[in-house]
Amino acid sequence: xxxxxxxxxxxxxxxxxxxxxxxxxxxxxxxxxxxxxxxxxxxxxxxxxxxxxxxxxxxxxxxxxxxxxxxxxxxxxxxxxxxxxxxxxxxxxxxxxxxxxxxxxxxxxxxxxxxxxxxxxxxxxxxxxxxxxxxxxxxxxxxxxx
Length: 146
Hints:
Distance between the termini: 43 Å
Number of helices: 2
Number of strands: 11
Strand order of the largest sheet: 8-1-2-11-10-9
Strand content: over 45%
CATH class: Mainly Beta
Oligomer: single chain
């Protein structure tokens, strides 16, 4: 048995992103997202999950990508950072992988969006950007003025 870190891998605009499995509570299909008038651009709205109202953050918009409509492969990755629970809307999420630590490098200096990147995983034929959920949500709070 390996002790290598585990990740949930999701896709946005043909790019793979990894989120530490320890930060992920669950994956959900996108059903109904209720819009919230006057909310920030990256907040798609809220959903009701297992007795709790959860904000839905468009990971596309948070990372500066074009917004697209949800489809059958869209997923909500429910993450927790400290006491905050947020649903990250992604194009798809279907992989649960482990990687040896030596496969992960620090993000290059000056990389746009690097403030929420924890690293870059390089495999034989693939590159996966590792998101830091805490920094991702902290940056979202700063955009709102919290």
